[in-house]
Task: inverse folding
């Protein structure tokens, strides 16, 4: 996350991470570390260290584990969504996001010995919906007033599969139950596999009201449906 690596003095875009594509009022300080991306990269290094005997990889893995713990906020019970690291200005963005639950899919217990996954599960309660976990919400606003953007107040079916698998690994029963709610829009025999779904106005006259967004069918939504189908 440094333009100098591309022989440049600045980024061409204001954001460099897909989940930042529609964040409201996002102000970045580069280089930037993202909690979820860090967990994913940690997993890649861990796998590489198993395949290739290397002190460098083992040392890198431990550094990444230490860095991951520094991204965890004990007060909120969640990983930082992003942290801009610059000597004269550090910018950390916390929020109730699905990133922390998704990160657990890539992390084993030996990666987070000082972090209780149950805290992440409890802290994620504000983004629980009737069809799974939302990407991110604005805490304090009632559901019918929540703005909807590509990665704000939307449920991504593929992410529910990752959250569920991570919850199984870390024995989080609530997260397992909430993420599995997505089957209502994936296994309804309509053949629709939406990229994401709007969660505004979830219920009307007692029935779930869902608005599909993005591409349909979406391959990774089909993969999530297959995952949940094989659990039945």
Result:
């Amino acid at each position: 996350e440094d333009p100098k690596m591309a022989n440049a003095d600045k980024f061409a875009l204001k954001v460099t991470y897909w989940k930042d594509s529609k964040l409201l009022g996002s102000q970045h300080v580069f280089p930037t570390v993202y909690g979820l991306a860090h967990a994913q990269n940690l997993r890649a290094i861990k796998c590489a260290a198993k395949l290739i005997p290397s002190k460098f990889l083992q040392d890198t893995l431990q550094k990444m584990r230490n860095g991951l713990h520094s991204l965890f906020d004990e007060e909120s019970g969640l990983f930082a969504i992003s942290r801009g690291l610059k000597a004269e200005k550090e910018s950390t963005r916390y929020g109730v996001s699905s990133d922390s639950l998704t990160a657990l899919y890539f992390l084993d217990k030996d990666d987070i010995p000082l972090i209780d996954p149950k805290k992440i599960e409890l802290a994620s309660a504000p983004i629980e919906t009737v069809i799974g976990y939302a990407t991110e919400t604005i805490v304090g606003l009632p559901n019918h007033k929540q703005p909807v953007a590509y990665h704000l107040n939307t449920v991504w079916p593929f992410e529910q599969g990752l959250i569920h698998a991570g919850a199984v690994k870390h024995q989080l029963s609530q997260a397992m139950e909430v993420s599995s709610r997505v089957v209502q829009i994936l296994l309804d025999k309509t053949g629709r596999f939406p990229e994401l779904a709007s969660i505004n106005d979830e219920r009307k006259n007692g029935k779930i009201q869902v608005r599909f967004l993005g591409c349909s069918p979406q391959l990774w939504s089909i993969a999530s449906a297959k995952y949940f189908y094989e659990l039945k």
